[in-house]
Amino acid sequence: MKAESPIVFVVDDNRSVREGVTSLLASVGLRAETFRTAEEFLRAPTPDAPACAVLDVRLPGLSGLDLQQLLLRAGRAIPIVFITGHGDVPMSVEAMKGGAIEFLLKPFREQQLLDAIQRALAHARLERQRLAEDAAWRRRYESLTPREREVMAHVVAGLLNKQIAAKLRMSEVTVKVHRSRVMQKLDVASLPDLVRAAERLSLPAASV
């Protein structure tokens, strides 16, 4: 399997449900890994692939909702499709507040589950893309020298070159050189692009 091949985790203590969902996923070319309990799932390694989980709300030991909260706190949040035969409104509200993609009551149509899983995997792909882009921005920023970072902070804060020169006690020409290098290293073409880059990097505003 390629690293990018999506995977669906199925966590349900009912063997027939695990097998049924696995068979359904296989029919549309998706692979599944199954677990009887939340604890089994937590012990499993995290694959480098777009992934989502189909969770039964009621499980032996940790419930599906407990697992959702644990994953959120651990920074392992993945899109979740909840399935249950004993759902109620407060339970579904809690699941959706935790970021669940769908909350399906048994019995549900196979297509409903497949549609929810496809939405969950699309969400997972977008999140992986966002994280990869954030990491690329961070690498570019880390390539800047300390002085270039200082200049960038003041440029983003709205200071003119001559103001930055006075504040950092350097010539205006030197400021222009640093500013140009910042733009090149971050691969941005304009001041608005530079401001957006700073926002993407969550950089603190310079004191002016």
Structure description:
- There is one protein chain.
- With 208 residues, the protein is an alpha/beta fold.
- The chain has 2 domains: 7-133, Response regulator (Rossmann fold, 3-Layer(aba) Sandwich), CATH 3.40.50.2300; 143-200, Winged helix-like DNA-binding domain superfamily/Winged helix DNA-binding domain (Arc Repressor Mutant, subunit A, Orthogonal Bundle).
- The protein is built from 9 helices and 5 strands, in the order βαβαβαβαβααααα.
- Strands 2-1-3-4-5 form a 5-stranded parallel sheet, sandwiched between helices.
- Helix 1 links the parallel strand 1 (7-11) and strand 2 (31-35).
- The longest helix has 33 residues, at 110-142.
- The relative contact order is 0.10.
- Which secondary-structure class do the elements indicate? alpha/beta
Largest sheet: 5 strands, parallel
First-residue to last-residue Cα separation? 53 Å
Number of helices: 9
> What is the CATH H-level superfamily of the largest domain?
Response regulator
The CATH topology annotation of the largest domain reads as Rossmann fold
What is the N-to-C order of secondary-structure elements (H for helix, E for strand)? EHEHEHEHEHHHHH
Helix proportion range: 55-70%
The number of E-state strands comes to 5
